[in-house]
């Protein structure tokens, strides 16, 4: 490499001073200051796509307190030759990144936020404690934050109060940068204190961005656009630039030209096709071939390790693992096809309410997967629906990892369950499947699913089938014989005579038949409607037909 790769840092100044490899994204500043008339801009992007580094770059560009020192950081970068250069070093800056404020309770969150604000003032704004431009009330407010004695009201109003203080000292309205605003919200959703967090964040952000006279620009980043009803209620001056918008589409992630140059510098351009298969595939606002920067930089910085899933290994994916089992059946059927490399059209919510997410509403779940980087879009169809697909091999492997964790939670080895299925040992497979459901409390919560436990079963089958898709065709709701079977599986190797037909039934309180009787009915349906006819015509002579019935965590099979 001509310059070394700096991994694990999001500090723009550190990149420049260490002469590390930095992909110039400073053209974003000109776009913000000359072509963007919004007072407040929200940029939802997947994690590890350069949000914090860009916010650090903006902080060092605008900061009036270190103007001369920071000026040299931008020497030779695109913004130096732009119309926006006149804004360099002109504004006080409030820069807060909330990515580390993920906690198990609202009280711990408030304590961590106070510590963050206290450190910000002590490390960057200590001079304000001796400012002749501030009165005693301003000084007392700053001291309360530094000492950690700030009350609840003072904490919620921090952005407004502190922007007023900075204006009085400098005579210039500040720029407010809030990075990863939704990280605490995701944590609250996972740990069960979402209502308190939504109320706090609504008040906290509104104080800084709603009708604040002492604000030059507000810039917010996060993964998702939380619905206005949840967070941005009444905030009329905000403009969202999501992955569906053309403007700013190349400011996050790496373009094909940027990746090509990185591979040339690393003397590994011959691997460009394999790199694209693993890390390419994203489409932001019409800008095709956007790469995941975290994975690309890790690959280039660790060439001996080869092509491995870097991005999916940087997070526990807790939100995804919690939501997938709750998704509507139509969503899970769609994901079956996506795992086979297909593209599907679907409605997607571009803003999210957690109520719809927890209910498994299809458009909301797909929005979560799309905006957090687990799906991508090839644009709108003529019916204004999104054309969705899995972006690359790295993301496909994530779904396989989720399945492995499901299986580990039940003490059932993946090889045993899938192996018994492929060997056509139905009794063993049925036993392992029943044990899986009986022991899966740590992952699946039936209490929230009402009369729809079928969602859980299909979520499990979705993960299971990812392990078969390399060597087998997996068809969901395939028309065959006199109807549509739930799942048909047959090998891609035409010399393999085996094939499988699965039909599912679920028991509810209105069904009088026993669970085993339902499984027998499912098997009889396969035979009566001849779901196996297509497989027989294709030359498969060893076809396992299996009816599966379930009730909550109970499973019965017939074959």
UniProtKB/TrEMBL annotation:
TM region(s), chain numbering: none
Signal peptide (UniProt feature, chain positions): none
Entries under InterPro entries matching the protein: AAA-ATPase-like_dom (IPR018631), PDDEXK_9 (IPR012547)
Pfam family, one: PDDEXK_9
Residues in AAA-ATPase-like domain copies: 7-232
PANTHER family: AAA-ATPASE-LIKE DOMAIN-CONTAINING PROTEIN, CONSERVED PROTEIN, WITH A WEAK D-GALACTARATE DEHYDRATASE/ALTRONATE HYDROLASE DOMAIN
Name of the protein in question: AAA-ATPase-like domain-containing protein
Organism: Persicobacter psychrovividus
Lineage: Bacteria, Pseudomonadati, Bacteroidota, Cytophagia, Cytophagales
């Amino acid at each position: 490499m001509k310059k070394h790769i700096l991994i694990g840092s999001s500090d723009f100044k550190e990149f420049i001073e260490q002469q590390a490899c930095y992909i110039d994204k400073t053209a974003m500043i000109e776009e913000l200051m000359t072509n963007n008339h919004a007072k407040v801009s929200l940029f939802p992007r997947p994690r590890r796509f350069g949000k914090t580094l860009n916010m650090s770059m903006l902080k060092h560009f605008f900061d009036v307190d270190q103007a001369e020192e920071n000026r040299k950081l931008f020497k030779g970068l695109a913004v130096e030759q732009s119309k926006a250069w006149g804004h360099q070093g002109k504004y006080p800056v409030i820069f807060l990144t909330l990515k580390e404020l993920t906690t198990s309770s609202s009280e711990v969150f408030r304590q961590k936020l106070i510590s963050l604000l206290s450190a910000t003032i002590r490390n960057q704004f200590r001079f304000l404690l001796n400012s002749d431009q501030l009165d005693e009330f301003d000084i007392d407010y700053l001291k309360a934050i530094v000492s950690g004695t700030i009350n609840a009201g003072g904490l919620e109003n921090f952005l407004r109060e502190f922007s007023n203080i900075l204006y009085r000292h400098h005579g210039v309205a500040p720029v407010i940068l809030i990075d990863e605003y939704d990280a605490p919200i995701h944590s609250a959703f996972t740990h069960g204190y979402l209502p308190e967090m939504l109320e706090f964040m609504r008040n906290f952000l509104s104080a800084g961005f709603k009708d604040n006279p002492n604000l030059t620009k507000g810039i917010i980043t996060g993964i998702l656009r939380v619905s206005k009803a949840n967070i941005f209620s009444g905030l009329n001056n905000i403009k969202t630039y999501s992955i569906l918008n053309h403007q700013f589409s190349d400011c996050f992630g790496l373009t094909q030209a940027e990746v090509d140059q990185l591979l040339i510098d690393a003397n590994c351009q011959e691997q460009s096709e394999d790199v694209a298969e693993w890390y390419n595939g994203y489409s932001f606002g019409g800008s095709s071939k956007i790469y995941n920067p975290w994975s690309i930089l890790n690959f280039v910085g660790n060439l001996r390790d080869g092509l491995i899933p870097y991005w999916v290994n940087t997070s526990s994916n807790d939100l995804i693992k919690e939501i997938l089992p709750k998704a509507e059946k139509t969503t899970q059927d769609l994901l079956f096809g996506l795992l086979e490399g297909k593209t599907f059209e679907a409605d997607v919510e571009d803003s999210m309410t957690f109520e719809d997410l927890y209910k498994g509403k299809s458009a909301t779940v797909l929005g979560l997967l799309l905006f957090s980087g687990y799906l991508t879009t090839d644009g709108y169809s003529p019916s204004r629906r999104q054309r969705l697909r899995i972006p690359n091999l790295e993301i496909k492997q994530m779904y396989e990892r989720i399945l492995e964790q499901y299986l580990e939670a039940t003490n059932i080895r993946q090889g045993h369950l899938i192996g018994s299925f492929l060997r056509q040992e139905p009794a063993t497979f049925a036993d392992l499947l029943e044990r899986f459901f009986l022991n899966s409390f740590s992952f699946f919560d039936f209490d929230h699913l009402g009369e729809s436990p079928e969602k859980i079963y299909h979520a499990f089958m979705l993960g299971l089938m990812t392990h078969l898709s390399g060597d087998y065709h997996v068809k969901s709701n395939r028309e065959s014989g006199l109807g549509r079977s739930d799942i048909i599986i047959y090998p891609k190797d035409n010399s393999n005579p085996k094939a499988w037909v699965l039909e599912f039934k679920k028991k509810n309180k209105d069904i009088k038949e026993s669970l085993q009787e339902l499984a027998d009915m499912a098997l009889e349906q396969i035979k009566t409607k001849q779901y196996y006819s297509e497989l027989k015509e294709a030359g498969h002579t060893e076809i396992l037909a299996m009816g599966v019935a379930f009730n909550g965590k109970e499973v019965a099979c017939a074959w």
